[in-house]
Design a protein that fits this description.
Largest sheet: none
Strand content: under 5%
Structural class: mainly alpha
Helix content: 55-70%
Distance between the termini: 9 Å
Number of helices: 2
Number of strands: 0
Radius of gyration: 15 Å
């Protein structure tokens, strides 16, 4: 069981790093390469994408913490 959780932890860690790198920062970061951090559009889709990216990042971070706690308890 420990090995399965450890492998899951590695996948979650890489997914969390990827999601964090997608966030737009001062210089639009890597998100500019994928079109997420683009300026304002007439529809306003950029803000919705950023909001969903934030939600996904928080959800994966919570999974990371919970899996870490499970690994410590085993």
């Amino acid at each position: 069981m420990y090995t399965v959780l450890a492998v899951i932890q590695v996948f979650i860690a890489f997914l969390l790093m990827f999601l964090i790198l997608l966030h737009s920062g001062k210089d639009a970061g890597m998100s500019g390469a994928f079109g997420i951090g683009g300026g304002g559009s007439s529809v306003g889709g950029g803000s919705m994408v950023e909001r969903n990216l934030n939600r996904a990042t928080v959800a994966v971070a919570i999974l990371f913490v919970l899996n870490t706690i499970l690994l410590l308890k085993i």
